[in-house]
Design a protein that fits this description.
Blueprint lengths: L2 E5 L4 E8 L10 E9 L1 H12 L2 E8 L1 H13 L3 E6 L5 E8 L4 E5 L8 H12 L7 E5 L10 H12 L2 E5 L2 H7 L4 E4 L3 H8 L5 H13 L3 E7 L5 E5 L2 E6 L11 H14 L4 H16 L9 H8 L3 E4 L7
Parallel strand pairs: 1-4, 1-8, 2-6, 4-5, 8-9, 9-10, 10-11
Antiparallel strand pairs: 2-3, 6-7, 11-12, 12-13, 13-14
Bound molecules: adenosine-5'-triphosphate and magnesium ion (MG).
């Protein structure tokens, strides 16, 4: 069974609340209040575990919320390597307004992580009890963690001869791409921020090809929300659409996509087949309410509805 390690430097407890209408100045009677473990890598670990791989989640945890996070991760049968920090783990809140169907997401910056604390995370990652087949680092970096952090994670993955998968944006993504990453999964806004704000689809594919030609990445999975996703590898470019669905909640769609894709590749599937599982997991995630992630049965059901076609994009002049 493949082992997938995830790294989440800014994990959270995701609190999910429902209210009929958001009105200022009055007490709004709410429902829900469910608490789920969250943060990019924690979510990816939960999805790959549901699909049947062994998952170990590495993350810093502090205070009461950090202790609760460990319990919530254990509840999902995901193994934790939680490194103690002096700061308090953040709690993010998603409010679902029933009358409009809108979701409001309140996200905190996260606690300051001291030098010795983030170094301890890297050390723990480098000394896992079982050699991981894949290391997936995902999410924002909290205050105190340097922008070249994911570049250091890439070096650890190389030491294990593990695939390094990264879901990050901005300066931390740029720094990581100075080294070698197996797969990146930007969304449209993140890829445009990296490659150029006004790029159309053809230009975005060219930007992905350039990253591959420069040996920075093996592949790019560019997710496009309701418009599906693009996959670019050295062998070609493809566009995928999931089955037409009415999205209930898009929270965790990107993490579910990545979990589906990583799991499938760790199981020995090709890039294209892994991409199909990614889109299936993204579709399954938007059918799940609140902060719920994709469930395995729904991912397998959605798999049959994913359509993939090669993209005819000429090489850049
Ligand atoms: N509204 C939607 N309808 C159908 N599928 C969706 C929708 N939103 C997302 N998906 C699916 O989930 C995948 C990932 O979504 P998206 O591109 O929004 O990722 P993201 O921006 O990284 O998400 P996140 O907010 O979780 O970080 C998409 O490629 C698609 O398959
Ligand atoms: Mg994302």
């Amino acid at each position: 069974m493949p082992t997938i390690a995830t790294l989440t430097m800014n994990p959270a407890i995701d609190v999910s609340i429902a209210v009929d209408r958001i009105v200022p100045g009055v007490k709004m009677r709410c429902q829900g209040g469910s608490r789920d473990p969250g943060g990019g890598g924690v979510n990816v670990a939960r999805v790959v575990k549901r699909l049947g791989a062994e998952a170990v989640a590495v993350y810093p945890a502090g205070g009461e919320a950090g202790a609760q996070l460990r319990r919530l991760v254990a509840r999902e049968a995901v193994e934790s390597v939680a490194l103690p920090i002096a700061g308090e783990t953040r709690e993010d809140v998603t409010v679902f307004e029933a009358s409009s169907g809108s979701q409001y997401r309140f996200v905190l910056p996260g606690p300051h992580v001291q030098d010795l604390e983030w170094m301890a995370c890297l050390k723990a990652l480098a000394h896992l009890p079982t050699r991981p087949d894949v290391i997936c680092a995902s999410g924002s970096l909290p205050p105190g963690v340097p922008n070249d952090f994911y570049r250091r994670v890439a070096a650890i993955a190389e030491g294990y001869e593990a695939r390094f998968v990264l879901d990050a944006s901005g300066a931390p993504l740029k720094a990581a791409l100075d080294g070698h990453v197996h797969l990146i999964k930007p969304n449209l806004a993140e890829m445009r921020e990296y490659a150029g704000a006004t790029l159309d689809e053809t230009a975005l594919v060219h930007a992905c090809r350039k990253l591959i030609a420069e040996n920075r990445v093996e592949a790019v999975a560019l997710t496009l929300g309701a418009d599906g996703a693009l996959l670019v590898t050295a062998d070609g470019a493809w566009r995928a659409h999931g089955a037409a669905v009415t999205a209930v909640s898009t929270v965790g769609a990107g993490d579910s996509f990545l979990g589906g894709m990583i799991w499938a590749q760790a199981e020995g599937h090709s890039w294209l087949e892994a991409f199909r599982y990614g889109v299936a997991a993204g579709t399954a995630a938007v059918l799940a309410a609140g902060t719920e992630l994709a469930h395995a049965a729904e991912i397998h059901r959605q798999w049959a509805g994913v359509e993939i076609a090669p993209l005819a994009v000429e090489n850049a002049a």
